[in-house]
């Protein structure tokens, strides 16, 4: 179990408060001007991944204090406990070992003293063989992943990200929403004879997934096809999947020490493996494993997930910035922000600490974002000139992502320009000079110039991947997973449970059962009661 940590009672906290008061007033432009070595010190190159955090509103003193905070929180011991399979998911009394899913024989991942790698590797081989058979037998043209949350967002995001490695694989579709329009819109274009459904559910009880799986089963049966030939399943609840009608050999199990939002590395990634093949899937795991080794072995000042986590804590706790915006300049990564929303917000969006008491500080930020350049024409106005500041992660890829290489140059130019604009902004003198040069009248300049000024000083991390491939995507995801873990340590929350999603599920079940009753009880508030009555009518 991870010990509680009280950030506001730490020695580093006092220092960070003092620094926030002074550093808050510094402009990034000046920090760069006064420090020629800044970029060198505040950037890192891992294999295939370059990360530049020089455009953050931090000084060396701030970084020192943040590292001291991490020390006080026992970050290194926390990472050790995580990798050692300690039961750090304390409210569910479980270990947290998704890293084992991407591990190798001999990595020594154990739960309750038992090495788990034999089982992990056997499942990996079985799902890899199954995926490769789906790819090669020519019978299946379309795979439909039915799942929601962690059983959807990770596989969907990675499958999209690896579009360029999917040649020879089936078309892979994702159905998650309990809105029947989702399933309908996918099935509309499919032929039951050549369609394989993969029902992915850790519990195999999730309402949305079971509703979609039942409907898909009826669709196969209506075509007089054997259900067992058209379904595979992924679950910790193997008996339920078999009872549903999936052949036991086509049910891929995993353990409760894998959280839903951290599960794409194992059988939950079956749709990814069907899309790109088992070899590329293995590369995805290898990339993540590289990042696991990095977080466990790199010293604090070179530890990229730690640094990323600390910057997030700095902004949330000390500068009061409410959100974290993720801007992938890669259309193939356009689901990455949605994936991260679950990974981050379901993990750290909590007001109760590890000691069971309300925490006295802010915890996880709102995570949001959109692929660039699309976002530029939607919400960047607010990023540049809004009243709140939203620290950004800009993710770009060096190698072109399509045959339209000219497009790629434009895409990259935009990514770099946005980071520069956020940081440098534009001062009033320049705006006025430009308007004068354009022949605008003094009155026009007076009226419009203030609106054209950008204060800048808006921080961003620039993450540059050499190429968007299975390995780099694995690295990137694991970087964020470890960032989330370390932030959870510092914020003193239980990052691996998700009790906050339960109440809505229970109430929806209650309302659903009332739907069929003649008159509903009066247990709801007036507003809820009216909505039920109105929709029943
Ligand atoms: O409702 C939240 C959640 O429990 C997520 O944590 C999980 O990823 C998702 O539902 C789906 O759960 P399951 O894989 O059990 O269907």
What's the mean pLDDT score?
Answer: 96
What kind of assembly state do the chains in view correspond to?
Answer: single chain
Alpha-carbon Rg, integer: 25 Å
Percent range for β-strand residues: 5-15%
- DSSP summary: helix tally: 23
Largest sheet: 6 strands, mixed
Helix content: 40-55%
Question: N-to-C terminal Cα separation, in Å?
Answer: 51 Å
> Strand pairing plus helix content: what structural class?
alpha/beta
What small ligands are held by the chains?
6-O-phosphono-beta-D-fructofuranose
Shape: globular
Low-confidence stretches: none
Count of strand segments: 13
- Strand order, biggest sheet? 1-2-13-12-10-11
Can you describe this structure?
- This protein has helices spanning 11-23, 28-33, 38-41, 60-73, 75-83, 98-101, 117-137, 153-161, 180-187, 207-222, 227-230, 238-244, 270-276, 278-297, 304-318, 336-348, 380-385, 405-424, 428-437, 442-452, 470-491, 502-515, 526-536, and strands spanning 43-46, 49-52, 110-111, 114-115, 142-146, 171-175, 195-200, 231-235, 251-253, 323-329, 366-369, 392-397, 460-465.
- Strand 8, helix 12 and strand 9 (251-253) form a beta-alpha-beta unit.
- The strands form three sheets. A six-stranded mixed sheet has the order 1-2-13-12-10-11, with helices on both faces.
- It is globular.
- By secondary structure, the protein is α/β, with parallel strands linked by helices.
- The longest helix has 22 residues, at 470-491.
- The chain is built from 23 helices and 13 strands.
- The site of 6-O-phosphono-beta-D-fructofuranose has 14 residues, from loops.
- Residues 148-151, 201-203, 206, 209, 260-261, 346, 498, 501 line the site of 6-O-phosphono-beta-D-fructofuranose (F6P).
